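Section 5.1 Outputs to date
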Amino acid sequence: MGGGGSTRRVTFESGDGPGMVKISDSVVRRLRGEADAITHQPADQWSTTERTSIDTPQTPQELSRIQDNYEERLQSLEQRNDDLSKKANQEFALAVQEVEKKFVKCSMSPICQELQDDVLRCYQLNPKQTLLCSKEVTAFRLCVEETKKKLITRRG
């Protein structure tokens, strides 16, 4: 790939038309075989010797100072995290209290349970003749309506 010479002929024209591809001047010079005016620099502009002098502390005191600095920053971040966590927990507790105030907790026992069981039993015994259970259904419905009336009069 790219190692052998190409026999393809390329012409250079300036203009904007269909089928035209724009390329930079440096690409044109390279295609013509001319030397590029810009010297190529590696992507990493720092030499290894400069990098080691930047990354490696020069003295044990400097190392100790850097370590103390990071420990201090870590403690500061942990404290900030604790503060934010406490604040979030407090806000959540307040939101729970608001919801509890808005919505009354219903902790009622089932009403007319025996009559409901009678209706269910009747339906199971007469799966194709549900009209035979009309007495049980009527008794259950009356019981539910009576319980509703009692609850409404207590609240009102």
